[in-house]
Amino acid sequence: MLRSLFASVLPNTLATAVRPSVQTPLRAASNALVSESRGWSQVWQGQQRWRSQLAPKRTKYRKAHKGRVSLPTGGSTKGTTLQLGSFGLRLLESTRLTAKQLTSAEVAVKRKIKPVKGAECWMRVFPDVPVCVKGNETRMGKGKGAFEYWACRVPMGRVVFEVGGGGIREEIAKEALRLASAKLPVQTEFISINSLPRLGSTLVSKATVTQTGASKAEIPVDAIPEGPADTALAGATAP
Question: Cβ distance 153 to 96 under 8 Å?
Answer without folding.
Answer: yes
